[in-house]
Structure formats: C-alpha cells, structure tokens
Amino acid sequence: MKVIGVYSVKGGVGKSTTAVNLAWEAAKDHRVLLWDLDPQAAATYLLEVKPKLKGGAESLVGGKGKPKTSKAVRKTAFDRLDVLPGDESYRDLEVALDAAKHSNRRLEKVLGPLSSDYDVVILDCPPGSSLLAQAVIRASDLVVLPVVPSPLSARSLQQVRDVISAEPKPPKILGFLSMADRRKTAHRNAIAYFPATEPEMTDIVIPATVVVERMGSERSPLGVLAPRSVAAQESSRLWAAAWDAVSPRRRKGKK
Ligand SMILES: Nc1ncnc2c1ncn2[C@@H]1O[C@H](COP(=O)(O)OP(=O)(O)OP(=O)(O)O)[C@@H](O)[C@H]1O
Ligand SMILES: [Mg+2]
Q1: Of 153, 167, 178, 210, whose Cβ has the fewest other Cβ atoms within 10 Å?
Q2: Containing domain of residue 42, as a range?
Q3: Per its UniProt entry, which superkingdom is the organism in (predicted)?
C-alpha cells in the first residue's frame, strides 16, 4: 500500500481538487482510499459522500486502542474508490494529537489495518504546518505539492521543503503548477522558471479554468465531466508521475 499526501502550507491552492482527481485516476487500475483530513470536507463533498465520520476524528486518530478504520470507510459511485470522510470533528483533532503519544505516527496506525485492502491511499490535508500536517508527511511515501504560480510561490515551495526536511525520513516531493493563467506574465514566467530550476517541480501545469470550478457544481472528478480537457489530461499525467515515483516496480528497478 502506497500513501500519497497532497499537501501545502498554503490554503486554496487546489489540494482537495487534486486529491479527488488523483484518486479517480488511480482507481482506474488500483484499489484506492481517499482520506479527507479536512473539517471543511471538500474532497468528501466532491465525491458525493456524506461528511460524517463514524465515531469522530478523535476516536479514529487521537484515540487509544485499535482504531476501527474499516467501519468508517464509505464507498463512492466509482469502482475501486472509497473515502474515509472528512467531518467537523477534525477541527478538534490538533488538541487530541497534542495530547497523544507519538502523535506524528497516528495516521500510520489508523491505516495499518487497511494495508491489504488498498493499493493506494491519497491524503487530503488541510493547509498549515500543524501536528496533523507532520503526521501526514510522516505517513506519506510521496508528497504531491500544488504550487500556484504567484510571486509568493517560490516561498511556499521553500516552506514545504523546510517542513518536510525536518522529518527523519523525508518523503519525496512532486510539485506541479496549479491554477496557472497563461494570460498573466508572472504565471508564464513561473511556467518557464519552475521546472527548469527547482528539482521537485515537474512540467505539469493545471490551468485555471471553469472546467475545474464545475467539479464543485457537478460533484464529479475532472476525468468524468471533461475527460478531453487540458486540465483532465494534465491530472492524468500527474497521477502517472506520482505512481512512477512510488510504485514498487520502479523502486526495485532503481536499486
Ligand atoms: N485549476 C483550477 N482552475 C479554477 N479553479 C480551481 C482550480 N483548482 C481549484 N480551483 C478552485 O479553487 C478553489 C480552491 O480549491 P481547493 O479546494 O482544491 O483548494 P485547497 O488547497 O484544497 O483549499 P484549502 O486549503 O481550503 O483546503 C475551489 O473553489 C476550486 O474549485
Ligand atoms: Mg482542501
């Protein structure tokens, strides 16, 4: 089972959108669980799952004893794609994690019982560098990082690097440009600059487009509502790059 965290210190950069599209792409070939760790539950909403976590986040992540993970999992309309729903109770999770021993290993403990049920777990993380973010990074084999090509984006990339490199075993970062608008000079410059100069940045560019916004009104992944759009095709490339980075076949070949 490979764990991919979609993470940024910055809010509103396309993390939940990316988590849903990656999960849908991954589920074409693999058994996938999308774990929505955000009290806003955007990814849960986009996949038309009820934002209600049985027992609440604290009993699942912060609690003592064995987490009853499989009871909290919900099916989606798509084959091989399940969701561990987001829920209001994630708002209080930080306090529970603060009180818990080994708080940054809590997610791994929750996922443990599912390791033979899923090939891929996608984590949709709220923004920030909280204990939850640390736990996400700790549990992840790969961190997928959306970067909006604004003048501050180089700074957010460095902030994510700093958070991740503080980990004893830092996961690899796979960065891509999100919400890119080629009509803007700053965005065009970033599209040319980032892949050429920043080792974590791929040349994958998800454009800022109404097609992505429609995901919210139609509650569907991009690959369902606009499979031929550039955004859907770039999402598909992003999944291919993510799987390439974590797949066991590749790892063996590398050694
Ligand atoms: N490529 C895009 N083009 C246009 N709109 C987009 C694009 N990507 C995301 N959006 C929109 O931007 C908003 C924020 O996206 P999203 O919720 O995925 O970001 P986020 O990083 O998860 O936010 P948060 O930090 O609040 O969790 C949403 O309304 C979404 O529909
Ligand atoms: Mg989000």
Answers
A1: 210
A2: 2-174
A3: Bacteria
Q: What is the CATH number of the domain that holds 37?
A: 3.40.50.300
- Domain membership of residue 183 (yes or no) is no
**What gap in Å lies between CA 174 and CA 147, rounded to an integer?**
10
Q: Which residues line ligand 1 at a C-beta cut-off of 6 Å?
A: 11-17, 38, 42, 126-127, 178-179, 206, 208-209, 212-213, 215-216, 231
> What whole-number distance in Å separates Cα of residue 191 and Cα of residue 198?
11
What total of structural domains would you count in the chain? 1
The pair of three-digit structure tokens given for residue 201, joined into one six-digit string: 């940045």
pLDDT in tens, 202-234: 999 999 999 999 999 999 999 999 999 999 999
Q: Which atom of ligand 1 is nearest to the CA of 206?
A: 1
Structural domain includes residue 203: no
Interhelix angle for 210-218 vs 230-246, to 10°? Answer: 80
In a domain, 194, yes or no: no
Compute the distance from residue 15 Cα to the ligand 2 centre, in Å. 5
Judge whether 45 lies within some domain: yes
